[in-house]
Design a protein that fits this description.
elongated, Ubiquitin-like (UB roll), alpha+beta, 2 helices, 173 residues
Length: 173
């Protein structure tokens, strides 16, 4: 068999000294040679997702602050008298809801719109002990903290929510 002759070189005409550019060799697939296989990618272990705790139901009692009332005493002096809070509820709420669903539920109980709620005044604590600290519930972060504590509670959770009146709130009958 004759050996294949190398491909001819092509000469390009450009101004200046002549330049020889070799031709590319012909592309022929090699017989019986498998294509290269890229190395197998190893999967980097990621953080395993934490399963969501089972949804629990907790009771929520709304305590709505009333503004102080000014009254006249027998000596015609003005005195400020604190009004009792209005209690509404209890309402059963599932712990697998979002902050938006929570505020919507409160608005439905108060017969108003979620935009009318005075969210910056929201505080919560357990029914017992009564002298427990009032914790802020003004953002999604405060709500998630409350939900975590509800899931950690061993007994049936009973939550008090203290708030200032909502705009256009209907008085309960």
């Amino acid at each position: 068999m004759d050996a294949e002759a190398p491909p001819p070189a092509y000469q390009l005409e450009v101004p200046g000294p002549p330049t020889v550019v070799p031709a590319a060799p012909p592309v022929h697939p090699a017989p019986n040679v498998p294509a290269p296989v890229p190395p197998a990618r190893t999967r980097v272990p990621t953080a395993t997702p934490i399963p969501a705790p089972e949804a629990r139901t907790f009771e929520l009692l709304l305590k709505i602050q009333q503004p102080s009332k000014r009254i006249r005493t027998a000596q015609r002096k003005l005195k400020t008298e604190k009004q009792d809070d209005i209690s509404i509820g209890p309402t059963d709420i599932r712990s697998n809801i979002t902050w938006e669903q929570f505020t919507t539920t409160i608005a439905e109980v108060l017969q108003t719109q979620p935009s009318n709620l005075n969210v910056v005044s929201f505080e919560w604590h357990w029914l017992k002990p009564a002298n427990g600290p009032w914790l802020p519930l003004q953002t999604n972060a405060g709500f998630l903290s409350m939900i975590k504590q509800i899931h950690a509670c061993k007994t049936h959770p009973y939550v008090l929510l203290h708030m200032q009146p909502a705009k256009q709130m209907h008085q309960p009958l």
